[in-house]
Specification:
Elements (H helix, E strand, L loop, with lengths): L1 H7 L10 E4 L7 H4 L12 E5 L2 E11 L7 E7 L6 H4 E7 L5 E6 L11 E11 L3 E2 L5 H37 L1 E2 L2 E2 L4 H29 L6 H25 L1
The structure holds flavin-adenine dinucleotide (FAD).
Family: Belongs to the acyl-CoA dehydrogenase family.
Protein name: Acyl-CoA dehydrogenase
Pfam families: Acyl-CoA_dh_1, Acyl-CoA_dh_M
Length: 246
Amino acid sequence: EDQIQRHLIPWRDDPRGMIALAFTEPVAGSDNLLPCLDVKAGMKTTAVPEGDHYVLNGMKHFISNAYCARLYLIFARSDLTKPITEGASLFLVPRDTPGLSIGRVDDKVGQRLADNAEIILENVRVPKEDLVGEWNKAMVSRERSVRHSHAFEGATCVGPAQRAFEMALDWAKTRIQGAKPIIQHPNIAIRLGEMWAAIQACRLMYSRVAWSADNFQYFDTRLFNVVNPFCAESLMKITLDAMQIF
Ligand SMILES: Cc1cc2nc3c(=O)[nH]c(=O)nc-3n(C[C@H](O)[C@H](O)[C@H](O)COP(=O)(O)OP(=O)(O)OC[C@H]3O[C@@H](n4cnc5c(N)ncnc54)[C@H](O)[C@@H]3O)c2cc1C
């Protein structure tokens, strides 16, 4: 409650009050997510207690909204002798904290509004009251915070897939080859039908994950883990199919 009052309420009505969640590092991507239980695997950014502060050192990359965010949720290793499930902690760090700077901003083919960037941490001093959740238990907090985001990521794939399908459908109805609209050729009709079915499957899957994130007694970790790759792979296939129809 104290953290909400100090960090979130002042930005409540300000669209610039964006938060970025930072766990990925150049040497640690999937190892943070799976997570890998080898003690040498996972993030390398460190958090060391010093008086009434923690001192953070390290670097994050690929962080969505890192460039425009005003507040960061930063994961760091608080016990390097343990795997990240037992030795990582989570911190709230405002943008203007001395020692925090933004490095390279990535150029991407999609999601271009989410300005993915590096966050550099050099002796960043975080007051003890800005530890989020329990010391060494960041991965528990992470699981809670990403429950909804996987459904969101699935949904972001369906928008472009739906648009590619609609454009291909319109074209197939008007393009005449073989003396009739190409949609009347079975190969094109079947391809469009399969594209439509894949979009419905993605919608059902991310809706189910979103609903179960709110109704946690029905939460299925397996579905949660596959929704993102399933929707992303479907988007790739649907857009390639659409290109074949043009
Ligand atoms: C658009 C976008 C937004 C992002 N936003 C954020 C953000 O806001 N915050 C944040 O912290 N991170 C963010 N990330 C980073 C994202 O979490 C990482 O890209 C992801 O964890 C994968 O890590 P990596 O890119 O280092 O790939 P790697 O982990 O190096 O994976 C490379 C390949 O190896 C495979 N692989 C990896 N480990 C294994 C294994 N154990 N067994 C079999 N195969 C394996 C992977 O499936 C992949 O195909 C974002 C990434 C993207 C693309």
